Amino acid sequence: MQVLLAVLEHQRRRVEHPTVVAAAALLRAPVDERARVGTYPLVAALDVVDAVDGEVVEALRTLPTATMLPDPLLAAAHLLVDAGARSRAVAGWLVDPAQVAPAAGFWVAVAAQPVFELAAVDVPVPQRDRWTAAACPCCGAAAQVSVIAEESGEFMAGSPRSLCCGRCATTWTYPRATCVRCGESDARRLGSWVADVWSTARIESCDTCRGYIKTFDLREAGGVDVVPLVDDVASAALDLWASGRGLQRSTRSLAGV
Q1: Which of 13, 19, 67, 134 has its CA 20 to 30 A from that of 151?
Q2: 117, 52 in Cβ contact below 8 A?
Q3: Does 134 fall in a domain?
């Protein structure tokens, strides 16, 4: 938890820095036009390779002195000091975070998230009839978690489900009873697992692809205090439980699972 707090404080400081603001503006530049003509994702992640590379350097300089980091993260930090290794990790992560080893991906995610989240502020998220994918319509990354909110108010509509992007924090609607990895919608092949210690969080699994996503139910007691991307890290024990049963998620949290 100390590592997470140090990361959040680092990102809070960086999101206001001129270099991050400029990178976010570059990323944001084509959004309105792409939204107008229905081109998704709305941003081209590789446009900010150099900026994210520089932010990795800043994270490597700052975080090891701010908190005690686990040995795998320190080892990855040592490797990323090399400009070539760092450039490959950044480019690979921007294309698909799953391409990068978890420890190296931690550093790139810490560096990139302020840029992407700032660029995604007030993006015109498409309605369900225009965007049906499980990938983020803003930046194209895989959904990290899903969220169930209050009742929609529409007759027989129930409580809507939204997916949340771990790269830019954009949320968009997605069907409740559909696997986010393979699109399976047969309820007999979909499962839900709740831990007593996490009343707001559960694992939603799929027998077809053996994938899962962590879902936060904001209707439960304590749901008002849930910050999905933060609580995803705090509830890493649920991911360990899922992986122990042979389940895999599409994208990792900062905890590396």
Answers
A1: 134
A2: no
A3: no
**How many structural domains does the chain have?**
2
* Structure confidence at residue 158 (pLDDT): 57
CB atoms within 10 A of CB 176: 15
User: Domain check: are 97 and 62 in the same one?
Assistant: yes
In the chain, what is the straight-line distance between the N-terminal and C-terminal CA atoms, in Å? 15
Residue 159 has pLDDT above 90, yes or no: no
Secondary structure tally for the chain: helices H, strands E = 9, 7
> Which ranges of the chain does DSSP label H, i.e. alpha helix?
2-14, 18-28, 31-37, 49-66, 71-80, 83-95, 102-119, 228-234, 236-243
Domain hosting residue 78, numbered range: 2-119
Final residue before a domain boundary, out of 119, 153, 180:
119
User: Which has the closest alpha carbon to 256: 129, 75, 109?
Assistant: 109
Identify the CA nearest to 25 among candidates 15, 36, 11. Answer: 15
Per-residue pLDDT tens over the stretch 132-149: 899 999 999 999 999 998
78 with 178, same domain?
no
Q: Give domain status of residue 138, yes or no.
A: no
Instruction: Output DSSP code: residue 246.
Output: T
Single pTM value for the model = 0.90
